[in-house]
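Archive entry: two folds, one per protein. Generate the first.
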Amino acid sequence: MPDPTKINVLFVCNRNQWRSATGEQMWSNHANLWVRSAGTSPSAMPTVYKGGILWADVIFVMEEKH
């Protein structure tokens, strides 16, 4: 059962290789957060999808274009 006191945070960049993946790693041990990362490019692993967006309480994008 999900912890309702934690905030779901999604980090997004192009390919989820550096920026968003680093954000996820840096915040993964924070006691009040659940974190994930994704990319906007079709070659990203994983890519941003509707379920991930609906899951997130907060979405951090790494560039204005995102």
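Generate the second and append.
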Amino acid sequence: MLILGLDNGLTVTKAVIFDETGRVLATARRRVAQLMPRPRHVERDMADLWRQTAAAVAEAIAACGHPAADIVAVAATAHGDGLYLLDRAGAPLGPGILSLDSRAGGVADGWVADGTAARALARTGQMPHASAPAAILAWLRDHDPARFAAIGHVLACKDWLTLCLTGRIGTDLTEASTSFTDVATQGYADDIPGLFGLAGLPLPDIALPDQVVGHVTAQAAALTGLMPGTPVVAGLHDVTASALGSGGYVPGTVAIVAGTYSINQTVTDRPLSDPRWFCRNGIARGEWNAMSISPASAANYDWFLDSLCQEEGDQPAHLRVIPEIEAALARPSSALFHPYLFGSPHGPQASAAFFGLRGWHDRGDMLRAVIEGIAFNHRHHVDALRDGFRPTAARLTGGISRAPVFAQLFADVLAMPVTVSATEEAAAWGAALCAGSGVGLFASPRHDPRDAAAITQTHHPDPARVADMAARHAVFTDLGAALAPLWPRIEALQGDT
């Protein structure tokens, strides 16, 4: 028996076919173009997203070596937040809006100033931010009233894919909590949309992530190669899916994803709200997922490789520079880096910078500073979660986690054991666990059939390195505090862009 997990990120949509043991049989990817019609607007064509996803599914089925009839269930996960609107006829209402979109930053700032954000934290478990559905909807209300008035349904990215597969309009427990659910009851409350000036908003029905909500339609089958009638479950937010698929969705563990975003999360059986994290619904009622995040992680490393590491021979840059980083970590260095190229936990005006560079530093020293800066930013979030939930271990995923030197660095920076899983496609596997649970293949999404010990490696902190990293982290943090009043002035030098 096979399971299909769909994982849609900010630039790529993937279809991954697993067998019942969790082994990947086939993976297919398609790029989905980002549209940036004006500054701070980051969108995508919803019809193209479905076309590319359907093509990826068809390719994966053709490559897996099994007939489509062997696929017993399907689930989707995708980037959270952002907004995918339908009109009253159920058709796309303009382009989908990605979580990288920041047009509503002024709305979110205004809510902080007038007290709305504090009231929202108390009711929803989170401070509204620029890419929150509530903030984007309020921006549309004020700047595109015709589109706002035509809204028939408010969905998240993976909900759109589920609709395309099944014809069913709805969402799941995890995705519903991005703006409008009561943090205590985990369901909608009539007063919450009104907090944001959105009273009467048409909100989608909520299902559990492993609940079968429909079946593949004949039209979807023709495009994807799936069998008509294949069960489809509601799916879940990709942050939660990554934790579930990597084995990090357990109390006492902080699940870390080092990717475009610095994602740090821990599951809890009590709703605890704080401005430093989102207290969102877990995969079952009575569970919450505390997420502390910012757009300041491994994308900084990718930028450095793309911009400053030209091709030198046949070896890819990310492999070629590892010895340079290892050599730099073995010697003292004053070089530090703020990884705020694409955002930060300190507001949109914080920017990236190197500090302490000297003429004798080389590329390895700069790369070391970039990786340390990424780990220090994750520590900023993990420290917040430690204040609230006391996690004692970490589970790390993301591209950079595959290099042992980086995983060990995280252990030393966080001063806690860091376990790396060999899981391929963790978010898609998290979705597949929900799909398998929905049709009885697994007892629940938590019943991962894999041998965890065989696919993980744990890195323990080195006491001497922990002390060194703590000292470096303190300077990193103090630099941020010192620069806070200067960041707006630095930003102003660029002009209105």
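Annotation attached to the second fold: Residues 363-389 form the longest helix (27 residues). The mean pLDDT is 95.
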